[in-house]
Amino acid sequence: MWPQGAIFVALPHLGPLLVWLLAPHRMAGWCDSPRKLLWCPPHKVLLLVWTAIYSVTGYASYLVWKDLGGGFGRPLALPLGLYAVQLTISWTVLILFFAAHAPGLALLPLLLLYGLVVSTALIWHPINKLAALLLLPYLAWLTVTASITYRLWRDSLCPEHQPQPVGEKSD
What's the pTM? Predict the structure, then answer.
């Protein structure tokens, strides 16, 4: 597996690293407002899950690359090209959400990403079943992420949907 596998596992982490460099002060408190969602995981859990997800998808892409003979031949164009588009959109979502602090803008690419991950899994399945199965936790996590993003976006547009602190009345 070394060094190609390590490169495939490390590559997906370039986007989050860029976001961290662009917006380190905004990362920790993204879901810590007074209106915190009860089901929103703590910041450290988010970091651990995203790190695991990116590592697993990187390893899955390595399995597909290896099973198709390695190199940069034509058979790799669709399976790994789709994965490259998926990574780019995933990084875009991170930038929109964390650096731009715009969950509404992040929602559409996030939903597109969900479809791309499903498409990638379907394309990868005949090549390497394990690689396709390794994308399932990613889909589950995207469901959680889309829910959190939608809720934060909705709450920013519709203050009446925001939970009120105990003892206060809304207008």
Answer: 0.81
Contact, 125 vs 132, CB < 8 A? yes
Alpha carbon separation from 7 to 3, 4, 93, 122 (Å, rounded): 6, 5, 23, 24
Residues near 140 by beta carbon (within 8 Å), at least 6 away in sequence: none
- The pLDDT tens digits for 115-139 are 999 999 999 999 999 999 999 999 9
What DSSP string describes 82-141? Answer: HHHHHHHHHHHHHIIIIIS--HHHHHHHHHHHHHHHHHHHHHHTTT-HHHHHTTHHHHHH
Name the residue among 165, 146, 154, 138 with its Cα closest to residue 53. Answer: 138
Q: Please give the Cα distance from 106 to 93 (Å, whole number).
A: 5
Q: For the range 45-53, what are the long-range contacts, defined as Cβ-Cβ under 8 Å and sequence gap of 24 or more?
A: 49/141, 50/16, 50/141, 51/13, 51/16, 52/137, 53/137, 53/138, 53/141
66 by DSSP, 3-state: which? helix
Residue for token digits 């399932």?
Answer: 136
Instruction: Provide the token pair at 82.
Output: 């789709």
